[in-house]
Design a protein that fits this description.
The complex is a heterodimer of chains A (about 475) and B (about 375). Chain A is an alpha/beta fold and about 475 residues long. Helices cover about 60% and strands about 10% of the residues of chain A. In chain A, the strands form 2 sheets. A 5-stranded parallel sheet of chain A has the order 5-6-7-4-8, sandwiched between helices. In chain A, strands 1-2-3 form a 3-stranded mixed sheet. The longest helix of chain B is centred in the first third of the chain and has 15 residues, at about 5-20. Chain B is of the alpha+beta class and about 375 residues long. Chain B is built from 6 helices and 26 strands. The chains are: A alpha/beta (about 475), B alpha+beta (about 375). At the A-B interface, helix 2, helix 3 and helix 4 of A face loops of B.
């Protein structure tokens, strides 16, 4: 049966009976959906586009519909009204991309989100995002360590456990150790990871014991999947720390976690290290990283320059690498060279390097201030170090984030330049000399108590004078 | 039949009915409203066959117990009522006309045959939710500007009603930006529904009563809303609403915060020039400064810097200034927080004073 045909006939008949208006209103958008036999009756299902049309058909036109359909189908009819809207393909927004709702946007966002998670995990783990395998230059002096690190990153907890890297300052132990961590995070963003200096580990144990919350400390270190400890030699001779570390080490390894340690010497040369720890350190893989040779230093320079988004011609890189042997110094030297280049854009890079090398070679290592340092330089150094404006330091505000740096500045002015208290007070917006005295005393006291404050002061000095 | 009622409430009720009536001029009978008088209540009904409204007005019925149903053309009678004073008007229904009297004024309007008028009932389902009318109105107002106004994607002309935990979320988008308002409600929302935005906003405007109730009549495919003075029924939109959750970023690579007024001020300045250059305003974020600038064109060019707090690396990103203006005009004064994920990902805007609103704008690719 052609339902459409039946329905058209019905509509024509109804038009004669009811007139044009109601038929146009209520029947034109309605259609015949099915006709089913049910004994002597026919069940006719009629679909109307919405509730109001259905209600009107039910209320007003059911009788006419019943009669007309009965005639056309030549049978008794039972009429069943339903609501059914035809969805136009236009209404289906899927497949119709807009800038906001497109696969490109979704994918881009997904990628960005993964990057953000990685970045967050890297900084939460206390890692440096630049310390990746990609940024690590390899030469015969460190290729074994590099290969071992790659193996550990690929198969944490299984390849070599612990991985013990040792070598002199600036050979890239920390870089390599963190590269493993970053690679693991890239593969498994959910990995629980902890990186710290052995000093931090020590301080936290002492804090925990003092604060009577060792369980919290244990939770923090023993529940991780990857534990990285830098300069492990410093725990030697500290019995409680070694004890705690021993248990931490065992628990992590028993749970299948990876441990990576660095030191300035191999385990058997670390004096006052408990034997049980020494033997554990030697269970995994112990690798020596040699001081970088000339070629490696050149490569490191090229990588650093690239990170700073600067051009460094090969010949200049070689000149620098020839004269500067400490890897730590390479980066500092490079930043200074580019800073000078910004001030003197006309000077060639090569000249700047040569001049700078001349100054550098008999360089003074001591971080005491130069004789004629200007008090303003100290204040400006402090402001840069704490990322505050100079005016904020001089100004009247007494909120904590400003007060403490201001006190550091006063401390340095007093200790390093021996400026009179009153003069320092004048410098800081006419503050009373007792305020200055209080500030200097306070920092003195703090420095006596806390290693962190001492470190802060020395890195401040480094920044200002170094 | 004779009744009397307050002119202003009569006018208001007719105006509300007109919001539905005006949608359907091609069917003559639907240009009329149905007046049903029962006891001391006048019910004004209107429908365009997709939506319907019933507004109630209190009256004084001179002939107690008498009932009546009449159909009238709303346009003319409303125009006449607007020329009368506030206060009482008297209505006298005869066989074929309605006579309106106030003091020394008198007018009559022909009645229409109401037998042609479609029957409708609004079914209030048992399952319903309760929301505060004020909050609902505010949420609608803040969501609607993002809703599509053209019909090229009909589903986007609607507002999505979605339950998230104990909040009802209203979502509007035109495919370039998105607004998401949340509000508290009582009861449980059954399923996601898309409601025509323009109609909803009009029909709900000035609804009386502190609380309104809403429900979905599954069998009829209609959303019903009841306030103190009216009950409405709206046909929901059929079709697939885009998956908005997928484009709401979970994290960010850059966050800036700034004063809303400063930002609005800056966008307004840039709007002068952006109109002539593809509506684009360029944002350069670097070192706690947000610099906005436009490309030079025959009407000139501009740039302005706004002090901001910055968390994350700097970024250069382009916007259609209309979207920025809409957002900043919409939110309360206070601190605005904007988060980015590079220059090609949806940007999230929030206002600290306006915690219930989340706004997303898709940036424009810069050349």
């Amino acid at each position: 049966m052609d339902y459409n045909d039946v329905w058209q006939k019905t509509i024509k008949q109804l038009e004669l009976e009811l007139g044009n208006t109601p038929v146009n209103l209520f029947f034109k958008n309605t259609h015949l959906k099915t006709v089913e036999e049910n004994g002597e009756n026919k069940i006719v299902t009629i679909a109307s586009p919405n509730a109001f049309i259905k209600q009107t058909l039910e209320g007003k036109y059911l009788k006419s519909l019943h009669q007309t359909l009965g005639l056309i189908l030549n049978s008794q009819c039972v009429i069943n009204l339903i609501i059914e809207e035809e969805i136009s393909p236009k209404n289906n927004s899927l497949g119709q991309e807009t800038p906001l709702f497109s696969e490109a946007t979704e994918n881009y966002l997904k990628q960005q989100n993964q990057d953000n998670i990685l970045k967050n995990n890297i900084s939460r783990g206390g890692l440096n995002k630049d310390y990746t395998f990609e940024n690590f230059a390899v030469s015969p002096t460190n290729e074994v360590a590099y290969a071992a690190a790659i193996a550990v990153a690929k198969n944490p907890g299984k390849a070599y456990n612990p991985l013990f890297l040792y070598g002199d300052v600036g050979v890239g132990k920390t870089h390599l150790m963190q590269a493993v961590a970053i690679r693991i995070l890239q593969n498994e963003p959910e990995t629980k990871l902890k990186y710290c200096m052995s000093e931090t580990f020590t301080n936290e144990i002492i804090e925990a014991i003092r604060g009577k919350n060792t369980p919290k400390f244990r939770n923090k270190y023993r529940k991780v999947n990857i534990l990285l400890i830098d300069d492990i030699q410093f725990i030697a001779g500290k019995n409680t720390v070694q004890e705690e570390f021993f248990h931490t080490f065992n628990e992590i390894r028993a749970a299948g976690g990876q441990i990576i340690l660095t030191s300035d010497r191999p385990p058997h040369e670390i004096k006052l290290l408990e034997d049980r720890l020494r033997s554990r350190f030697e269970e995994g893989l112990t690798i020596d990283i040699q001081t970088p040779n000339f070629e490696l230093r050149t490569a490191i320079l090229l990588i650093k320059a690239k990170q700073m988004q600067k051009d460094l011609p090969m010949d200049i890189a070689q000149i620098i690498a020839k004269h500067i042997t400490s890897t730590r110094k390479l980066q500092g030297f490079l930043s200074q060279v580019y800073a000078i280049q910004e001030i003197k854009p006309t000077e060639t890079l090569k000249n700047i390097v040569l001049q700078k090398l001349n100054q550098e070679i008999p360089a003074e290592k001591n971080l005491k201030p130069r004789v004629y340092i200007n008090p303003k330089e100290i204040v400006s150094g402090v402001s840069k170090y704490f990322d505050l404006s100079i005016n904020a330091l001089y100004g009247p505000k007494r909120s904590k984030p400003i007060v403490v740096p201001r006190q550091f500045a006063m401390y340095l002015l007093k200790h390093d330049l021996n400026m009179p208290y009153t003069e320092i007070g004048m410098m800081f917006g006419g503050r009373d000399h007792t305020t200055v005295m209080h500030a200097v005393e306070k920092i003195d006291k703090l420095a006596n108590k806390s290693e962190n404050i001492r470190e802060e002061i020395s890195s401040l000095r480094q920044k200002i004078y170094g | 039949m004779k009744i009397s009622l307050n002119n202003s409430s009569f006018k208001k009720a007719l105006q509300i009915s007109l919001r539905i009536i005006k949608n359907n001029p091609q069917l003559p009978i639907l240009n009329n409203a149905l007046l049903k008088i029962k006891n001391n209540n006048l019910e004004i009904r209107a429908t365009d066959l997709n939506s319907a409204i019933m507004v109630n007005v209190k009256i004084e019925n001179k002939e107690k117990g008498k009932e009546g149903v009449y159909a009238i053309n709303v346009g003319t009678i409303l125009e006449y009522l607007q020329t009368l004073r506030d206060g009482v008007v008297f209505l006298n229904f005869t066989k074929d006309k309605i006579i309106v009297e106030q003091k020394q004024s008198k007018a009559s309007f022909p009645l229409v045959d109401f037998n042609d008028y479609p029957d409708f009932k609004i079914e209030e389902t048992e399952q319903k939710i309760l929301i505060k009318a004020e909050k609902f109105n505010e949420a609608l107002k803040k969501t609607t500007p993002s809703v599509a106004t053209d019909d090229s994607r009909p589903i986007l002309t609607g507002i999505l009603f979605h339950q998230e935990g104990n909040l009802l979320q209203l979502i509007g988008t035109d495919g370039f930006r998105l607004s998401l308002s949340s509000l508290e409600f009582e009861g449980g929302w059954e399923r996601d529904l898309v409601i025509p935005a323009k109609l909803l906003l009009e029909i709900i405007k000035d609804i009386e009563g502190e609380n309104i109730s809403l429900g979905f009549d599954k069998t009829q495919g209609q959303l019903w809303i009841r306030g103190e003075d009216r009950i409405v029924s709206i046909r929901i939109l059929q079709g697939d609403y885009p998956n908005f959750r997928k484009i709401i970023p979970e994290s960010f690579s850059l966050k800036i915060t700034g004063d809303k007024e400063d930002l609005l001020f800056a966008v307004k300045q840039m709007a002068v020039f952006a109109r002539q250059s593809a509506n684009i305003v360029k944002w350069e974020i670097e070192k706690k400064k947000l610099k906005m600038l436009t490309q030079a064109n025959f009407s000139g060019e501009g740039e302005v810097s706004v002090d901001i707090n910055q968390e994350g690396d700097g970024l250069i990103v382009g916007f259609n200034f209309h979207y920025l203006l809409d957002f900043f005009n919409l939110v309360e004064n206070g601190i605005t927080e904007i988060t980015f994920n590079g220059s090609l990902a949806p940007v999230v805007l929030r206002n600290k004073e306006d915690k219930n609103l989340l706004h997303i704008i898709m940036p424009v690719k810069l050349d």
